[in-house]
Specification:
mainly alpha, three-stranded antiparallel β-sheet, globular
Length: about 190
């Protein structure tokens, strides 16, 4: 059985993608195991109380979760190596996508109600990832703001993020536990 160069390249790309996902999963599991071994468990959720105590518990939960975000892996920085720079460096853009993906994961896991806002980026968004939207099978890759807005509408019940590049979107998806969709979502009236 022989493979042409296109078939081999496709298989190599699939293998590289699988390795990326496994790398993230191993890092996540290592971090969880380390916390368990140290006996560090999240504090209890508060279901009732004053607005101040609820805000305090929410703030402490965000702080706790921020400590669970692993350091940016080298492969993620490699994804952004060819990006053009604005006021925000390539490394900072990779970190921003990595952290945003982890905040999205925390939301999807039910650990928090909404992600922490991302640091601003001076470059305009050119690609949007929707991880949760009513009536859609997600994740979705939207390549225009118009298509993105048709999916998220008023943003209620949605989880999404916009980026200046597909490289950042890929990092976001992988950190959230998804693959970057290969086919962009098309708007249908």
């Amino acid at each position: 059985m022989s493979l042409d160069s296109t078939g081999l390249a496709s298989q190599l790309a699939d293998l590289a993608h699988s390795i990326e996902l496994l790398t993230i999963q191993v890092a996540d599991l290592s971090l969880r195991l380390d916390r368990i071994e140290r006996g560090h468990q999240p504090g209890p959720y508060h279901s009732a109380g004053s607005a101040a105590s609820v805000a305090e518990s929410t703030s402490s939960q965000y702080d706790f979760l921020a400590g669970q975000i692993p350091a940016l892996p080298a492969w993620a920085l490699d994804f952004c190596s060819t990006l053009r720079e604005g006021k925000v460096s390539k490394k900072d853009r990779a970190i921003r996508a990595w952290e945003a993906g982890h905040w999205a994961r925390f939301v999807l896991e039910g650990k928090i109600g909404k992600p922490r806002p991302s640091k601003p980026c001076d470059l305009p968004n050119s690609v949007y990832i929707v991880l949760q939207a009513e009536g859609y099978s997600c994740p979705l890759l939207c390549e225009t703001a118009a298509i993105y807005r048709s999916v998220v509408k008023d943003f209620k019940g949605t989880l999404s993020h916009g980026f200046a590049s597909k490289s950042e979107a890929k990092i976001y998806c992988l950190a959230a536990g998804f693959s970057l969709p290969e086919v962009p979502h098309q708007w249908r009236p």
